[in-house]
From TrEMBL, chain A:
Superkingdom per UniProt: Bacteria
Family: Belongs to the CbiQ family.
Lineage: Bacteria, Pseudomonadati, Pseudomonadota, Alphaproteobacteria, Rhodobacterales
Pfam families linked to this entry: CbiQ
Major location (coarse): membrane
Keywords in alphabetical order: Membrane, Transmembrane, Transmembrane helix
Topology relative to the membrane: Multi-pass membrane protein
InterPro entries listed in its UniProt record: ABC/ECF_trnsptr_transmembrane
Entry's localization field: Membrane
Chain segments annotated as transmembrane: 24-53, 65-82, 88-110
GO CC, one annotated term: plasma membrane
Identification of the protein by name: Energy-coupling factor transporter transmembrane protein EcfT
From TrEMBL, chain B:
Membrane topology: Multi-pass membrane protein
Name of this chain's protein: Biotin transporter
Molecular function (Gene Ontology), one example: biotin transmembrane transporter activity
Transmembrane intervals: 39-64, 76-101, 107-137
Organism, as annotated: Paenirhodobacter hankyongi
UniProt keyword Cytoplasm, yes or no: no
Similarity-based family: Belongs to the BioY family.
Length: 210, 182
């Protein structure tokens, strides 16, 4: 289970995470304002330049992320051409590709620890509602921990199914997977409670001589 | 508190893992992924609020750039693409699925869950998905809806499976069925 972020310390990796997300939001807003194909093509070109500045691996990852979008864009563009509005199809395709490429770029150059720190910062107001601000980050960390566990268990269930039957298991294996997950949940809840639970930490009582 | 939290977290992990199951092509050739089955299940088992919270955790993880969506997709790019409505629509989909299971207490749990999954996971989800397609592609509602119609048969099958799975869970772990307890 790996993050999509590229390893490395390029210029884009070193930018503060808040700046990256702010710039992305501004760029998205700007792109919805642009309606002519020429400025949109320039924006796509500039985005491509961002990728090229990071090297071949970034370009390959960006192309991989764009591929499923390209199918839909090609479909819509050909539809517009058929309807006699090829220019509209072109602007639409350029805008969607630029938006997806820009957002993917931020994902590629922002390491996971930076993002988790961002979540913790954004979750700070939770304390006002009596919830621990660590909750969202803890949830994300636990999900990342349990994805490989559940995946391994699913493979085991499929193997033992194949040992008993020649038919495909289909969705029926989700039932034992879900039941085992409910048992995990009880154990995990006990473990969390044993470590102090989820309530926000009370202010440390000042005791002792110092 | 702790137990509700871990159930939400583990259902989020389940939704993510179901995205890894290779999609099964229907007779029409349209691939059916198991991932939205996980969304229906989260709503039906955890109830409206907690089901939607489990989906929210998945969406945060997608936004963080982890490739947990079916087909190994993830990252902020998904939220900028034309299918964003289907992704964000998972939230109300799980919520409505859970709400129906909570409200129809008199009904057999499997039937209520199947009904909820059909209403939440198909009607509500497609409404959100269609709005997203309309916004990103600038299409009318009819054309946008036509893009997603091929997926309806697969989703109907998933709603039925979600009902059956919820009934199984209700039989073996009745205490975990937060949508019907209390």
């Amino acid at each position: 289970m790996l993050s999509l972020a590229l390893p490395g310390t390029s210029w884009a990796h070193r930018l503060p995470v808040g700046l990256k997300f702010g710039a992305l939001a501004a760029a998205m807003l700007g792109l919805t304002w642009l309606t002519a194909p020429l400025p949109l093509a320039a924006a796509l070109g500039a985005t491509a330049g961002l990728y090229v500045s990071l090297g071949r691996r970034a370009v390959a990852e960006g192309a991989r992320a764009l591929r499923p979008v390209l199918w839909i864009v090609a479909f819509i563009a050909s539809w517009q051409v058929w309807e006699g509005a090829p220019l509209l199809g072109l602007t639409l395709g350029l805008r969607i590709c630029t938006m997806v490429a820009l957002a993917t770029f931020v994902t590629l150059v922002t390491p996971l620890p930076d993002l988790i720190a961002l979540i913790e910062r954004l979750a700070r107001p939770l304390a006002r509602f009596g919830l621990s601000p660590r909750l969202p980050a803890l949830a994300v960390a636990l999900v990342l921990r349990f994805i490989p566990v559940l995946r391994g268990r699913m493979e085991l269930l499929a193997l033992s199914w194949r040992a008993r039957s020649r038919r495909r298991p289909g969705p029926r294996l989700i039932a034992p997977l879900a039941l085992s997950l409910l048992d995990d949940s009880d154990h995990l809840a006990d473990a969390l409670r044993a470590r102090g639970g989820l309530a926000p930490r009370p202010a440390q009582p000042t005791q002792g001589r110092d | 508190m702790e137990r509700n939290f871990t159930l939400v977290v583990l259902f989020a992990a389940l939704i993510a893992v179901l995205g890894l199951v290779p999609p099964i092509p229907l007779a029409s050739g349209v691939p059916v992924s198991a991932q939205s089955l996980g969304v229906m299940l989260a709503g039906a088992v955890l109830g409206s609020v907690r089901g939607a919270l489990a989906v929210l955790v998945v969406e945060i993880i997608v936004a963080l750039g982890l490739p947990v969506l079916a087909g190994g997709r993830g990252g902020l790019g998904v939220f900028a693409g034309p299918t964003v409505g289907f992704l964000v629509g998972w939230l109300p989909a799980a919520f409505v699925t859970g709400l129906i299971v909570e409200k129809l207490r008199g009904l057999h749990i499997g039937i209520a869950a199947g009904l909820g999954a059909a209403l939440g996971g198909i009607v509500v989800l497609y409404a959100c998905g269609t709005l997203g397609l309309m916004a990103v592609l600038g299409k009318g509602p009819v054309e946008a809806l036509m893009l997603s119609l091929p997926f309806v048969p697969g989703d109907l099958i998933k709603a039925a499976i979600a009902g059956w799975l919820t009934a199984t869970i209700a039989r073996y772990r009745p205490g975990a069925l937060l949508s019907r307890t209390r």
